[in-house]
Amino acid sequence: MAPDAVDPVLPRPDRPGLPDVLPSLLASVSGTGGAFALPPARAAALLLVDGLGHALLHDHAADAPFLAAMAEAGPLTVGFPSSTPISVTTLGTGLPPGAHGTIGVRFRVDGSLLDALTWTADGHDARKTLVPETVQSRATVFERAAADDVASTVVSDRAFRESGLTRSALRGARYRGVGAFGDLADELLDALARPGRQLVYAYHADLDQLGHLRGPGSRAWRWQLRQIDRLVEQLAAELPDGALLAVTADHGMVTVDRRHDADTDPDLRAGVALLGGDPRARLVYAQEGAAADVLATWSAVLGDDAWVLPGEEAVARGWFGPVGHGLLSRVPDVVVALRDTAAVVRSEAEAVLSRLPGQHGSVTAAEMEVPLLVQTPT
């Protein structure tokens, strides 16, 4: 397949994006305006459907008629890399990746490669050595809500209650652990119905899981989308008086069919000290003095399959948004964003992930653009 004939899709400072979603819902509840000018509400909930890209939703609108018919304030652009821990932290803080510092699925912090999904480094639990509240020290939207006397609730998988990512991105809210659609719906509606002003964030992961395992748009993926559509329709029908419901996503997804293996290609290993990111967005940390050679080699090996640029150039172009004080050390020497249907896998270090057909993380429209759908209060 010919390479993309378009430029990278990146957030634009003149347009609202994913960082503005929860602050706008909080503004709707507190009556202070907001980037999306949502109507006033006594309570507001955001349902994050992991992996529901804007293009995927509209390509499969027949499988999600209720979602497709909802009022849309989008598409929105997420931050780079377009992967879950980056976007969840962006949602939770209202800040772009460069400002909150979670700039990859795996990125360098104090010399170690931190996996932001599992909060591990070198295969070990890093919550004591790389304390989540220190790695991501900016206030969350939920902490700001508490200061404005708005109660917050996070509804998500019970396994994530004490995770590093939850502590980093979602602290300040009451956590309600769930295991299925029924749990999620019950807890979300219960939180919205509580007395006073309420802000609710709910997370559902299964569409993303099936996209990874079976491919986005596969029959299994479409069946899951139908279930989500029915869930949202039922939630909208049972919203308490004065409550608003919004639906968005953390990224889209593409099906990959060309894999470069960084664990078996000696050229891609040469001069590399740490290799972070994920298959569609690699963060390459070079050995001392080797950055220029690594940049040249990765550019030559990947050719038209990737955008390859120095980390400092990615910062200057705004790929991560403004990078906060003290966070430049997390930026890699080389940023690699894959094009079309290519991926850079690690068959040894990331054996399962490397085999999955569905991937995301790069700067294509299919991965960077997500919907923002709104059911207004009655």
UniProtKB/TrEMBL annotation:
SUPFAM superfamilies in the cross-refs: Alkaline phosphatase-like
Highest taxon in the source lineage: Bacteria
Classification via InterPro entries: Alkaline_phosphatase_core_sf, Phosphodiest/P_Trfase
PANTHER family: BIS(5'-ADENOSYL)-TRIPHOSPHATASE, ECTONUCLEOTIDE PYROPHOSPHATASE/PHOSPHODIESTERASE
Record's protein name: Alkaline phosphatase family protein
Species of origin: Actinomycetospora chlora
